[in-house]
Amino acid sequence: MNDLTLIRKNLFRKKLRAILLTLSILIAFLIFGVLGAFHTVWTSGGALAADNRLITVNRINFTVSMPFAYWNRVAAIEGVENVAHASWFGGYFQEQTQQVQTFAVDPATYLAAYPELTMPAEQRQAFLDTRDCLLVGTDLAGQYGWSVGDTIPLLSNIWQKTDGTSSWTFNICAIFDAEDDKVPANYAVFHYDYYNEALAFNSDQVGWLIINTTDPSFNDQVSRAVDELFANSPSETETTTEAAFNEAFANQFGNIALILLFVVGSAFTTILIIVGFTMVTAINERTGEIAVMKTLGFPAPRIFRMVLAESVMLSLVGGLLGLGLANLMISGVADAAAAFLPGLALSAQVFWVGVGLAILLGLLTGIVPAINAQRVKIITALGKQ
Amino acid sequence: MLNQIGAVTLLNLRSIPQRAGLSLATIISIALVTGVLLGFLAMSNGFRATLQGTGSESVAVMLRAGSQAELNSGLSSDQVRLIEEAPGIARDADGTALVSGELFVIADGIKRSSQTEANLPLRGVGEQALRLREGFELVEGRMFETGTNELVVGEAVLREFSGFELGETIRLGPNEWVVVGIFSTGGSVFDSEIWADIAVIQNLYNRGTGVQSIRARLTSPEAIEELRAYEENEPRLNLDIQSETDFFSGQAGGTAVLIEFIGWPLAIVMAIGALAGAWNTMYSSVDTRMREIATLRAIGFSGFAAAVGTMVESLVLAAIGGLVGAGAVYLLFNGISASTLGSGFTQVVFSFAVTGGSVIAGMVMAIIIGFLGGLVPAIRSAYVPLLTVHRSE
User: Which chain regions cross the lipid bilayer (chain A) (predicted)?
Assistant: First the structure.
């Protein structure tokens, strides 16, 4: 009988207790895994951002527009490779509750700004050539069952046409996807001209600019140059990296990271305490046996290692089961959640942090009982009986 | 029988200190579960309370049809004049209609908690705006002068955003403004807003004489129907008309429900973990008292009494845990100010509110954990095999 067998037998000698402890560890790691995956997606706006992409918005706020002419003026700045512009359409499909994220863009520069968007070459060409084309993300298309060739009306809750209506008719001529699941494909874009020419008010304005610099090292220089160009004008600008812009937007909802930390922290404190005290009790119950083992010639360090290994094993079993269950649950809801949280998945990083935490938890809960076991005096322990 | 139950229960409770570690573990784990649940409920209750506490039944909010939010809406000054003539609108002693056309633009403020920019509503208002908000008062300073770059800010803005102290000059886009007053509307959504003279904002933001929303005091809450009928028959008006109460409680829904939808499942999953812990503790409790229980049974105590004793012990531990959790959340979080993006696409500042209802929900959950955790061990203690226990001596 080697040590591992002995450790396993000890761990499961009281089956119910072992199962209950495993269950509570499993729960904590399930919470960790699910919230960890959520956190990865939530903060992926920063990680997904191309490092040479800048966003220019009106300095008052990104909901305030700026003159269309800015687009060409920025293109002339040194270090700028490509400038695209986009405007918020406030679209909805049939019912006001069915909101559709839609932007009016300049097609060629928009596709150049986001090279990660993929679509068949003929659809790409159709989008560039067709004035009333709507380029739809695959998740959005799936949500409403749209396919290439469909003609759909979208209504705007902001804009009105000169004819008094708020409805634009689009021809879906292309559907985009991205290789990385985390790249959102839950929105649609269309030709700025098709929308601008019909606007009853606020025409020749754009919402924001997307600038690709020739190299990330030009980012600072370019963003300063852009903002200086429009300083002291009625529409001053503020240019930041895409990552910083996304992060600031995510922060608008509140300190989500802190809330997640609170929750995961409480879950871990709970199991740390439950498992810790139970391990101490469990080893105390075995004082006699440990004394016998010592009498048989088991050296104290070996006993120390065995007790520690027992708690690490317990916590790894619970931890891995929990992370596995989290993975199952996340894959189960990933498709349904794609429209809100694209690319929801248990990342390798979260998994390994979880494994690390499981080992740490095992060591923390095992250390006191291990020291106790190591210190067991044969005479006093056997004398107890 | 009752005597027996009482005696066994006392015996159990008095011996808790002997199992201090495990009992403490149960209390803390149940406290943390209750705490997480109450934390989320306090967040959602606080947000809901702020929005539902805003608005009056006898004020009508009018937006361009289909625009859903003040930000998206746009109305002309002619339409404001038409509303001033409308039936059902209250008038003051001089015969002036209590109608306020307002502009609503978003400006960036620096959120104290994250030091990042967040959307603040900048509302352009005229004289009538104050008469449409009950409970409006200036806490510090004075009202802005018309035609100047002066601002008054809500006290919640001051709390959550930096740079809005009285007397400060603040830059919003290309314009500099001076904060001349701090106002309060008693914790409503308006406390999260910045107000300035409507004419100045119309000018700075190139809005001509346009407004985005119209608020009007009604002669009575029922008069909204007269107003709607008038709007129907007036081709120059194409408005969505809602009472202010409905307008804001409609906005409470999404976010508050979302917070609860995250909080409850999370708490229930954590409760399963705590349940395992409680079960384990009670199991050990029965385990260590095997001999004791067997002795009691031998001298004539019933199995039922032993079971009740175990169950009461479990329930007491759970109740203590629940109370500790609720108390900690109350002390740490009640009244804490936070802000999030509301459905008007601007920050809504609210305070965490630990309500009686949520404390009861938390306690019920704690007791359920205690009951389920104690159930099997209690049954077990009723069936302690007398002979085996004593023979093993």
Answer: 256-283, 303-330, 350-371
What was the ipTM of the complex prediction?
0.87
Using CA coordinates, name the residue in chain B closest to A30.
Answer: B269
Question: Is residue B242 a part of any domain in this protein?
Answer: no
8 Å CB contact of A273 and B117? no
Tell me: do B79 and B205 sit in the same domain: yes
Inter-chain contact A277–B72, Cβ cutoff 8 Å?
no
Q: Helix (H, G, I), strand (E, B), or coil: what is residue A187?
A: strand
Q: Which residues of B1-15 are buried (b: 16+ CB within 10 A; e: fewer)?
A: eeebbeebbebbeee
What is the pLDDT confidence band of residue A1, given thresholds at 50, 70 and 90?
Answer: low
Residues B182 and B204 in one domain: yes
User: Contact B272/A254, CB-based, under 8 Å?
Assistant: no
pLDDT at res. A52:
93
Choose the final residue of a domain: B206, B237, B268.
B237
What does the pLDDT look like over B223-253, one tens digit per residue? 999 999 999 999 999 999 999 999 998 887 7
On whether both B191 and B329 belong to a single domain, the answer is no
For residue B60, is it within any domain? no
- Which residues from B are below 8 Å from A102, CB to CB? none
- Tell whether B298 and B157 lie within a shared domain: no
- Give which of B7, B68, B16, B45 is closest to B344, Cα–Cα: B68
State how far the Cα of A267 lies from the Cα of B71, in Å rounded to an integer.
Answer: 41
pTM summary value:
0.89
Q: Do the domain assignments include residue B90? A: yes
Residue B245 lies in a domain: no
Q: Which of A17, A23, A274 is nearest residue B29 as measured by Cβ atoms?
A: A274
**Residue from A26, A34, A61 whose CB has the most chain B CBs within 10 Å, to mutate:** A61
Please determine, for residue A385, whether its predicted confidence score (pLDDT) is greater than 60.
Answer: no
Please tell me if residue A155 touches chain B, with a CB cutoff of 8 Å: yes
DSSP state of B163: T
pLDDT digits (tens, 9 = 90+) for A315-326: 999 999 999 999
- Contact A2/B at CB under 8 A: no
Of A64, A255, A267, the CB nearest to B105: A64
Residue in chain B lying closest to A318 (CA): B273
Same domain, B72 and B13: no
pLDDT digits (tens, 9 = 90+) for A64-106: 999 999 999 999 999 999 999 999 999 999 988 888 999 999 9
Q: Is B91 found in the same domain as B183?
A: yes
Contact B117 A280 (CB under 8 A): no
- Domains: count for chain B: 2
pLDDT for the residue numbered B323? 97
> Is the separation of the CB atoms in B4 and B301 below 8 Å?
yes
Distance of alpha carbon B143 from its chain centroid, rounded? Answer: 30
- Could you tell me if B81 and B127 lie in one domain? yes
Give the whole-angstrom CA distance, residue A369 versus residue A188: 60
Check if A200 contacts B (Cβ < 8 Å): no
Q: Higher pLDDT residue, B384 or A141?
A: A141
Q: Nearest CA to CA, how far is A264 from chain B (Å)?
A: 10
Q: Which of B29, B33, B173 lies closest to A60 in CB terms? A: B173
State the DSSP string of A25-53: HHHHHHHHHHHHHHHHHHTHHHHHS-TTE
Residue ranges of chain B with per-residue pLDDT less than 70: 389-393
Note the pLDDT of residue A335.
80
Chain A hits for B347, CB-CB cut-off 8 Å, are: 252
Note down the domain range covering B24.
Answer: 2-52+251-391
- Dist CA A221 CA A118 (whole Å): 30
Top residue of A266, A279, A287 to mutate, by most chain B CBs within 10 Å, is A266
